[in-house]
Design goal:
Blueprint: H1 9-24, E1 31-32, H2 33-40, H3 44-56, E2 60-62, E3 67-70, H4 72-83
Antiparallel strand pairs: 1-3, 2-3
Length: 84
């Protein structure tokens, strides 16, 4: 799904995470953060930077070395971004 140009890289990444979670069948399933980053067109270094920020903001939590999962707060954000 192409991203609208008005989304920042951070927003595009959150949307990609949400789409990966939807595809898994459960929004709270762990997601490989680098796979979602690849989908959003981000480098691994960019993914690490964005993840650090969205973890601090309590949108996602770590589930392992490379996996993260949405918090209820993050799910709300993703839905809001998709509605724009």
């Amino acid at each position: 799904m192409p991203r609208k140009p008005h989304h920042t890289k951070d927003e595009s990444y959150v949307i990609s995470l949400y789409e990966e979670a939807l595809a898994s069948g459960n929004l709270e399933n762990p997601i490989d953060r680098y796979q979602a980053g690849k989908r959003a067109g981000l480098s691994p270094k960019g993914v690490d930077t964005i993840c650090r920020l969205i973890i601090q903001a309590n949108f996602v939590k770590k589930a392992g070395e490379t996996e993260i999962f949405f918090t209820p707060h993050g799910i709300e954000l993703a839905k809001k971004l998709l509605a724009e």
